[in-house]
Request: fold
Amino acid sequence: MDAMSASPVVRFCPTAAYDIPPERIVIAAVLQWRGRIALFRRSRSLRHDSGLWHCITGFVEAGATPEQQTMEELFEETGLQAKDLLDLRQGPDLVVDDARGTSWLVHTFTATTSRRRLKTNWEHDSYRWTAPHKTKRFSNRVAWLDNVLEATGHCLPNVSAPE
Reply:
């Protein structure tokens, strides 16, 4: 999802309702520990979303279920194994349109861990545990992060005041 616009178009959807090719199907997992969530800063050596804060993400590989891919990404990007998880809960699927109008199917998850310390890989410069309501303080976050946090119940939807 390297071309997301500053304000992506997002739709909640049933997976089967959209004809999105496999190369545009991804997972987005919010990692939770003791009521806090982890945000990860993308390595500056990466082409896309470099230096931006986000959650755990990855393309769903051929033959893998979204749950299997989530477990793989958690292991690769944080060192967490199944034994380190207290819960893995799937949220709603989202369709997110990037800056070019290309639609991506995003399977959302919340993974609750018993471990505070994580072992990040080369994809991240650092990570921070934060209260979900404080994520807006991370001004340099990927544009679609708020949508994932909303979908997984980690922040309230942006609601405009009545006119």
Q: What stands out?
A: The longest strand covers residues 85-97. The first helix runs from residue 66 to 78. Strands lie at 9-13, 25-33, 36-42, 53-54, 56-59, 85-97, 103-113, 124-130. The chain has two helices and eight strands.
